[in-house]
Write a structure and sequence with these properties.
By secondary structure, this protein is of the alpha+beta class. The chain is built from four helices and four strands. It has helices spanning 3-16, 21-41, 62-72, 119-122, and strands at residues 75-81, 84-90, 96-104, 107-116. The radius of gyration is 16 Å and the shape is globular.
Length: 124
């Protein structure tokens, strides 16, 4: 695993301001776990385990998933606690992505993203 590039990617996501510090720590930990897997398995063909689908949105075409959800109004959000919300993005084929959001200054930030109903497709 190229940790310099992984760190550059994480720095970019951090600067975007969409994610909580906890989310970013979780992503860094995920990179470390995948590195251990790469060293253990020495996989040489096909997408590496854990990378067959998009890293954050669990799809090989995140831009299409988000565009379709926005175009069809297939995103719902509910407040779960004061300063916390859960958004559900209905995917074009099957299942949903669930985003847990928390209040941060003048906006909300993503704390977690996880699949709901697509785990078999995403190899989860």
């Amino acid at each position: 695993m190229n940790f310099a590039r992984a760190q550059h990617y994480l720095d970019y996501l951090t600067k975007a301001g969409w994610f909580t510090p906890q989310f970013m720590r979780d992503q860094a930990q995920q990179f470390r776990r995948r590195d251990v897997d790469f060293r253990r398995t020495r996989q040489a063909y096909g997408p590496p385990t854990g990378f067959g689908f998009g890293w954050i949105l669990y799809t090989p075409q995140p831009e299409k998933v988000v565009a379709a959800a926005l175009a069809t109004g297939r995103i719902t959000a509910t407040e779960t606690d004061a300063g916390q919300w859960q958004a559900r993005v209905q995917l074009p084929d099957n299942g949903r992505l669930v985003l847990d959001l928390v209040a941060a200054a003048d906006s909300a930030r993503i704390e977690t993203i996880y699949p709901d109903g697509i785990e078999q497709l995403a190899g989860q």
